[in-house]
Amino acid sequence: ISQVLNNLLSNAIKFTPEQGEIELCFKLEEQQEERLKINVTVKDSGIGITPEQQVKIFDAFEQVDGSISRSYEGTGLGLSIAWNIVNLMGGEITIESEAGKGTVFSFNMMLGYCADGHARAEEVYACESYDFSGKTLLLAEDIDINQEIVKAILQEAHVNVVAAANGRETVQYFAENPEKYDLIFMDVHMPEMDGYEATRRIRELENPKAKTVPIIAMTANVFKEDVEKCLAAGMNDHIGKPLDFNMVLQKMRQYIIK
Ligand code: ADP
């Protein structure tokens, strides 16, 4: 949530002149026994976004106007990451805007909560802190935006993430310093060397850590044969894509020995 808020608020500040106004508003939309639906809006009185521009605004690397954005700097990734995070958390993010008048971004999310401090077992994650300070994971992922998303969602877990762009790099980084890594998240389909081959090569390395480091596949292929292929290559486990953030944290808890 803080990652999404950071992006929306810093954009509001970036694209609103000094005398303008920015408003952040939280609303409880629905309260069920153990779930809350919240709605958050970030409203600014800034330069606004035209309807044509709004259509593309959540796409990766999209900036409304190269010249304006260049003077404000940025990558065009923030909103795409925010959109993905909100989606992964089962919500939606929407935009209302008028050029020259201002912009309202709003998103909603269903959250588990623990009013009496007794969370249900499967919702313990909502109350527990996931602090992996001092731990390092190696992320094998060839698509930049996916790397950014995983890094962004793991920021709160304080884990150090080293990203590799293909299987060859993953083997190389691990071989250079096996003791450094507590876990490897391995995309399966990557250029140069795929995740299966990279896993086999890591397991064949001399260093004892190469046999024990947990390797978890991250892939959209979730058929039984695919999972078996991952295990046969020497991986320990598997997470399906699109990623469920809570599942990622759960696997980290399971495999990273604190
Ligand atoms: P970045 O800010 O890093 O360029 P974002 O994905 O966060 O990337 O934003 C993409 C583009 O959307 C920005 O470059 C800007 O053109 C436009 N934009 C985002 N938020 C606002 C806003 N509150 N008001 C006007 N334009 C905005």
Approximate shape? elongated
Please list the strands of the largest sheet in the order they lie side by side: 6-5-7-8-9
State the distance separating the first and last CA atoms: 25 Å
Overall SS class:
alpha/beta
Query: Beta-strand percentage?
Result: 15-25%
Helix content: 25-40%
Number of strands: 9
- Number of DSSP helical runs: 10
Biggest β-sheet strands, sense, barrel? 5 strands, parallel
Q: Brief overview, please?
A:
With 258 residues, this protein is an alpha/beta fold.
Give your account of this protein's structure.
The model is unreliable at 119-127 (pLDDT under 50). The chain has helices at 2-14, 51-56, 66-72, 78-88, 144-154, 167-176, 195-204, 209-212, 224-233, 245-255; strands spanning 22-31, 35-44, 92-98, 102-112, 136-140, 160-164, 183-187, 215-219, 237-240. It is α/β, with parallel strands linked by helices. Helix 5 links the parallel strand 5 and strand 6. It is 36% helix and 24% strand. It has a 5-stranded parallel beta sheet with strand order 6-5-7-8-9, with helices on both faces. The protein contains 10 helices and 9 strands. The structure holds adenosine-5'-diphosphate (ADP). Adenosine-5'-diphosphate is lined by residues 7, 11-12, 15, 44, 46-47, 49, 57, 62-64, 69, 74-80, 103.
